[in-house]
């Protein structure tokens, strides 16, 4: 197989294919990503699952409970970042993303598997104090569900599999690429 890091167009296509694989394959390392936001108290990061990507529109999407802190943070400042790492291929990908908060989107909710819906209906709300960690009820509720689609503004990719390491940045309206020193 030819090296997807051989040139910038091949790398750009490879990165979007890697993201798509993360959406399609629950076992893929790019399925899980750290979402960083800026809250009122400063930087915050947490793991989330990648739910959708579209290379043509440079879109990525994650889902959450509407009552979580990340929603408040993104309403305060929609700029976020997603961080991916594949230990097998030794590739890191950082995305700078402008997120949108979609509250209770019916089309997305319809596609959420029954078993996963319980993630969007805990009582009390995520982050609320709870006397007993076992006293939690789950009532799947579309009104508590949020989709966070976002436009990718910048991609920063690093390969540790190359010697010397390779790093490329894609940014601007067309995500134009350039090589940078790692
Ligand atoms: C492997 C893993 C995957 C997770 N996936 C999601 C997810 O897709 N969406 C989500 O809202 N929280 C997910 N969580 C929980 C978040 O990391 C976090 O604990 C929760 O959303 C509250 O975050 P916040 O208070 O910063 O908003 C996941 C946690 C782990 C460990």
Can you walk through the features of this model?
The chain is of the alpha+beta class. The protein has one domain (8-180): Roll (Pnp Oxidase, Chain A), CATH 2.30.110.10. The chain is 19% helix and 42% strand. It has four helices and eleven strands. It has a six-stranded antiparallel barrel with strand order 1-2-3-9-5-4. It has a two-stranded antiparallel ribbon with strand order 7-8. The model has no long low-confidence stretch (mean pLDDT 96). The structure holds flavin mononucleotide. The site of flavin mononucleotide has 15 residues, from β2, β3 and α2.
Write the layout of secondary structure elements.
Layout: H1 8-24, E1 32-39, E2 42-54, E3 59-65, H2 69-76, E4 79-86, E5 91-99, E6 102-103, H3 106-111, H4 114-117, E7 122-123, E8 137-138, E9 145-159, E10 166-171, E11 176-180
Antiparallel strand pairs: 1-2, 1-4, 2-3, 3-9, 4-5, 5-9, 6-9, 7-8, 9-10, 10-11
This protein binds flavin mononucleotide.
Flavin mononucleotide (FMN) binds at residues 32, 44, 46-49, 62-65, 68-70, 126-127.
Would you identify the regions where 5 or more consecutive residues have pLDDT less than 50?
Answer: none
Radius of gyration from CA coordinates: 18 Å
What ligands can be seen in this structure? Answer: flavin mononucleotide
Shape: elongated
* Average pLDDT reading: 96
* First and last CA, distance: 24 Å
What is the total domain count? 1
Give the SSE order as H and E letters. Answer: HEEEHEEEHHEEEEE
Total beta strands: 11
Number of helices: 4
Major sheet description: 6 strands, antiparallel, barrel
Read across the widest sheet, the strand sequence of neighbours is 1-2-3-9-5-4
Structural class: alpha+beta
């Amino acid at each position: 197989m030819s090296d997807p890091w051989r040139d910038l167009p091949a790398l750009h296509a490879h990165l979007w294919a890697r993201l798509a694989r993360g959406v399609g394959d629950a076992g893929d390392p790019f399925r899980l990503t750290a979402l960083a936001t800026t809250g009122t108290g400063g930087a915050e990061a947490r793991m989330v699952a990648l739910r959708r990507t579209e290379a043509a529109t440079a879109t990525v999407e994650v889902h959450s409970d509407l009552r979580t802190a990340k929603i408040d943070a993104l309403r305060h400042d929609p700029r976020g970042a997603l961080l991916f790492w594949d230990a097998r291929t030794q590739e890191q990908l950082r995305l700078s993303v402008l997120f949108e908060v979609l509250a209770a989107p019916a089309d997305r909710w319809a596609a959420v598997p029954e078993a996963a819906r319980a993630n969007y209906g805990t009582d009390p709300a995520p982050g609320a104090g709870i006397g007993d960690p076992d006293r939690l009820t789950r009532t799947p509720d579309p009104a508590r569900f949020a989709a966070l689609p976002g436009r990718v503004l910048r991609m920063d990719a690093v390969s540790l599999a190359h010697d010397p390491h390779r790093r490329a940045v894609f940014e601007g309206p067309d995500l134009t690429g350039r090589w940078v020193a790692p």
